[in-house]
Amino acid sequence: MAPNDSAETIGEATGTVVGRRKAARYIVPVAVAGVAAATIGLVPALANTGDPDLPKISAQELIERIAASDEQQLSGTLKISTDLGLPLDGLAGAFVPGGDDKGSSAAAPEDKLMELTSGTHTLRVAADGPDKQRLSILGNASEYSVIHNKGEVWAYDSQSDEVYHAGAPESAGAEKESPEAPEGVPTTPKEFAEQTLAAVGDTTSVTVDGTAQVAGRDAYQLVIKPKQSGSTIGSVRIAVDAENGVPLKFTLAAASGGKAVVDAGFTKVDFSKPAASQFDFTPPKGAKVTEADELETGKDEHGAAQKGLPEQFSGQLPGPLAGLEGSEGVNVIGKGWTSIAAIEIPGGKGLPTAGSDGIPAEAQGFLDALGDKVTGKFGSGTVFKTRLVNALVTDDGKVYVGAVTKDALVRAADGAK
Predict the structure, then answer these.
(1) Confidence class of residue 23 from pLDDT cuts 50, 70 and 90?
(2) Domain match, 348 and 292 both
(3) What is the sign of the dihedral through the CA atoms of 176, 179, 182 and 184?
(4) In this predicted structure, what is the pLDDT of residue 88?
(5) Least buried of 94, 140, 192, 400, by fewest C-beta within 10 Å?
(6) Which residue has the higher pLDDT, 30 or 3?
(7) Is residue 342 in some structural domain?
(8) What is d(CA 79, CA 249) in angstroms, rounded to the nearest whole number?
(9) Which of the listed residues 309, 333, 355 is the one where a domain comes to its end?
(10) In whole angstroms, what is the distance from residue 346 CA to residue 355 CA?
(11) Are strands 288-291 and 5-7 parallel, antiparallel or unpaired?
């Protein structure tokens, strides 16, 4: 096993990662009605089969190896899961665009791939350069696939027998390994790793913590931890292929311990050229085909806005709220892993209440059950918690949200007064 080595501040290596690829942003959904949703987390269901003896490498050298990695061809199988500790199954997807809206398509990638934000999934991926990628989500008796082949994107949902078709400019996949994934929804360990490394700074400790074998390949283990107290994030562990620098496995652990919140890992991977047939697609006979330009973006057939996320609720890790500062109506408090977004609710009102806001008592009880009542110098409010992202909604119409503890949110609200 390689000895530990550390690099407390990465500097140029981090800049290289940022410069080489545009990192997609973590989505931090927050319901104005008062429910904090979550960032994305994946947990690979594969065990290390041994600790190979590899040459010593520093953290900075390993990050540079990730940045320099330019594998254009691969195929493999991944295990993905999410355990955010939400009080209700599927709550994470309740405030994101979904295929149930009229005027949408069950096969549209921006809807279907959001399912990866909760539960456990098996994926197959293939890539042959920037213009040919395929991603399939395998169900018990169904399969959903997105195929990007040069100027076209096809998506097929076998369960609904629906097809989605869109034009795509050549080289559209140059910065992404997965076709047409919604912004903020990474689907491979590499995409997760690049998002995290792009924001590494002086609030972060980065070390090499031994070696592992993932999907039959030797790998170094890069460990990233917050230096700050008060974060709900315990650590990020990235298994990096020793030969080509490709991240093979990504694990996000909560500071509270227990099952990993986030992990994505290959169970099988092959870096040879995939068969050309992987990227061919013809709609099955009788399948419903929807063209992308038939769908009116952002509205249903009656002209009503579809449910979705305001742009200001997007950020990067670490901290999850990086990139929010300067957004209209948003003030970012602190920095790094313990940054908190302070958001003004239009109208200056907090959560709706039974009677005065016209909601039934049963609905009021449901909202109360989801959160914890808190008080402080700021007044009073309710904290909605996941294992990763928490939000304080005050009774006077402010929201404080971040990957921080309940106490950190209360301190931020007190300090804002």
Answers:
(1) very low
(2) no
(3) negative
(4) 46
(5) 140
(6) 3
(7) yes
(8) 10
(9) 309
(10) 20
(11) unpaired
pLDDT attached to residue 302? 36
CA distance readout (Å), 113 to 34, 88, 166, 180, 269? 25, 20, 16, 9, 21
At 207, list the tokens. 């070390």
CB burial of residue 47 (10 Å; 0-12, 13-18, 19+): exposed
Whether 317 and 196 have beta carbons less than 8 Å apart is answered as yes
Identify whether residues 282 and 409 lie together within a single domain: no
Alpha-carbon gap, residue 291 to 289, rounded angstroms: 7
Q: Which two tokens stand for residue 247?
A: 């991240």
Region label for 360, one of left (φ > 0), alpha (ψ between -120 and 50) or beta (otherwise): beta
Cβ contacts of 19 within 8 Å, gap of 6 or more: none
Q: Residue written as tokens 């990993």?
A: 260
> What H or E segment, with its residue span, contains residue 20?
helix 12-20
Question: Could you tell me if residue 377 is inside a domain?
Answer: yes
Residues 340 and 375 in one domain: yes
> Distance between CA 26 and CA 39 in Å, rounded?
6
To the question of pTM greater than 0.90 for the whole model, the response is no
The boundaries of the domain holding residue 137 are 98-181+275-309
The residues with which 156 forms a beta bridge, in sequence order, are 145, 163
**Alpha carbons 352 and 364: distance in angstroms, whole number:** 8
Count of C-beta atoms within a 10 Å radius of residue 316:
21
Q: Do 412 and 289 fall within a single domain?
A: no
The total number of structural domains in the chain stands at 2
